[in-house]
């Protein structure tokens, strides 16, 4: 009963607060890009507060010291909506690599374009890869933080999909001073994909040891996947509920 009630309060809060964003953020469109970025940061901070108050989900961040100043490519596991806004709470100027379909969402597409997130049309084949590398290189050269989900979609806790080679293509074009920071998390164990029920607990997002530029393509891909999946498995096991208690939430 308590899980049901918490889930109801959380979902009401989240979708009402999301509606506020969609209906009123248009007022920031005439202003410079960073005004929209700051507005999205405030929205994300209040969302994180609401998740804790109404949903009973806390957040723990590990390895923040591994994020350098300036440009960085964060290659992260992706399990929940939580992952799509949490970087706004932690980073100065986050830029997400996202599906082009999301740009078609009324109003939200305008806000994402204003913030200069990087939309990828996956039906465009090789052109999509070239455009992604070009845009990521542009954002990194401007000192921003680019976040990419190498599996391309949300996965269930404990599941690994193929890491897309576009990550390596971006890595090979890193501008001077930039590096890659792998990131693992267990958000899907508490807030699953397209699920009404949530499970109170603590989501952990762990930033791993940076990977410098210059590694061969295959070595880089093997290294980034090994680091992320090893850490994600540990976090997944730590988040598993005790037998007989609340069941896990599957995306």
Provide the helix percentage.
40-55%
Number of strands: 7
- Give the CA-CA distance, first to last residue: 21 Å
Strand order of the largest sheet: 1-7-6-2-5-3-4
Instruction: Report the biggest beta sheet as strand number plus sense, adding barrel if it closes.
Output: 7 strands, mixed
Q: How much beta, percentage-wise?
A: 15-25%
Q: Which runs of at least 5 residues are low in confidence (pLDDT < 50)?
A: 246-251
What series of H and E elements makes up the topology?
HHEEHEHEHEHEEH
Number of helical runs? Answer: 7
Task: Report the principal-axis shape.
Answer: globular
- Overall mean confidence score, pLDDT: 92
Structural class: alpha/beta
Oligomer: single chain
Radius of gyration, rounded?
A: 18 Å
Question: What is this structure's SSE topology?
Answer:
Blueprint: H1 2-24, H2 33-55, E1 57-62, E2 72-76, H3 86-90, E3 94-99, H4 108-115, E4 118-120, H5 126-141, E5 145-148, H6 166-172, E6 179-185, E7 201-207, H7 217-239
Helix pairs in contact: 1-2, 6-7
Could you explain the architecture of this structure?
By secondary structure, the protein is α/β, with parallel strands linked by helices. It is 42% helix and 15% strand. It has helices at residues 2-24, 33-55, 86-90, 108-115, 126-141, 166-172, 217-239; strands at residues 57-62, 72-76, 94-99, 118-120, 145-148, 179-185, 201-207. The protein has a seven-stranded mixed beta sheet, with helices on both faces. The chain is globular and about 50 Å long. The chain starts with a helix and ends in a 12-residue tail after the last helix.
